[in-house]
Amino acid sequence: GFPSSHAGHLCLLRLREDDYPGTTRIEEWPSWTLPVLKWGKEQGAVVGYSHSGWGLALPDYAPNGERVWRNARRGADQGDWTGRAADILPDYEMPPFDGIGANEFVVTVAHDVCDFISAVDTPAIWELNIWYHTLNCGFRTKISGETDFPCIYGDKVGLGRIYVKLDQGQTLDFDTWVQGLKQGRSYCGDGMSHIFDFKVNNTAMGEPGTTGEISQLNLLKPGNVKVSFEVAALLATEPNAATEAVRNRRLDQKPYWSIERSRIDDSRTVPIEIIVNGYPVATRKLRADGSTKTLDFDIDITQSSWIAARIFPSAHTNPVFIEVANQPIRPSQRSAQWCIEAVDTCWNSKVGQIATAERPAAEQAYNQAKAFYQNILAETKTP
């Protein structure tokens, strides 16, 4: 495989040239992901990471509430263990960064060479956690859906999905679809719930906002915004043995994203949440009968923030970014500190697999990313 695989498998969309400069064999390619992503971006490609959660596992909650590491890398058998998998976002515990998912993303996002990370085919908490922390540092990487057929899921193509909005009359082809992915005119999920036309005030997800910036709403001062969208979800009328088998599994066991995990008690309803800076700030119950409903929420914004909608773990929109008084998004010192520590953890995990000749450049890039997060931490006033 590619020498950089240990740091994260890559998606390189719309490459014009697929031979890395100066190489004649795959084995000669870079042994870390930043040079490959940068090379892709320089030729106009849209680039990101696959099966993002691998290597980003989080410790369980023991029955007494303590955090305990278990062998849950890929939903391993838990025996008589009665703790639960990580299920709260954001999570401030540190993953091992020991897999082939979006591990080096914490470095490459700081160098502005990553357009998206892929989700749905690995545990949702593991995928979303690193994304939320980097969004809280002001980055605007998008999220996509992925099946990874047949390596992770052999059931069917399209088990993990991304839905991209096109303009009226716009031709659906690969180029327009990829552009929509890059702009974040999309949501991802398991295909059993849908969040259409997500807007904050009049700024639509993935479209030019107040000043022409994609997905950006500018406010002169803190205040109230109106979040609106259409939403639909579909559950079996009543729980049955098959649906309960899914709902009762740990979140790190397949299927990782499923509308059945969203069911509230024995009802046919699911929660639709508005997420601001990683935390749910408003929730409504949605009857999951397949019909489309129009919802709107009034949300108070106290500082520059990102805002999205989700039905966890079934669907998640890309964000709209709100800048208040032209200030950058800096809502969480804890997220900035997490990213600083994540860079060190990733380096310690990956350095032994980076070619000796490439290590000085890699170490410099890691140090630059760490310094970037340290600057963000210094700029951030909110704990």
Overview of the molecule:
- By secondary structure, this protein is α+β, with helices and mostly antiparallel strands.
- The chain has two domains: 1-189 and 332-383, no CATH class; 202-329, Sandwich (Immunoglobulin-like), CATH 2.60.40.
- The protein has seven helices and 18 strands.
- The protein has helices at 33-42, 105-108, 124-135, 174-183, 241-247, 333-350, 359-379; strands at 10-13, 46-49, 60-61, 67-68, 116-119, 142-145, 161-164, 186-189, 193-200, 203-204, 216-219, 223-233, 269-276, 279-287, 293-301, 305-311, 315-317, 320-324.
- The strands form four sheets. Strands 7, 8, 11, 13, 14, 16, 17 and 18 form an eight-stranded mixed β-sheet that branches.
- α3 crosses α6 and α6 (333-350) packs antiparallel against α7 (359-379).
- The protein starts with 9 loop residues before the first strand and ends with a helix.
Q: How many structural domains?
A: 2
Summarize the main sheet.
8 strands, mixed
Q: Bin the helical content.
A: 10-25%
Shape: globular
Arithmetic mean pLDDT: 96
Q: What low-confidence regions span 5 or more consecutive residues with pLDDT below 50?
A: none
Number of helices: 7
Order of helices and strands: EHEEEHEHEEHEEEEEHEEEEEEHH
Strand count: 18
Distance N terminus to C terminus?
42 Å
Rounded to an integer in angstroms, the radius of gyration calculated over CA atoms is 20 Å
Structural class: alpha+beta
Q: Into which percentage range does the β-strand content fall?
A: 15-25%
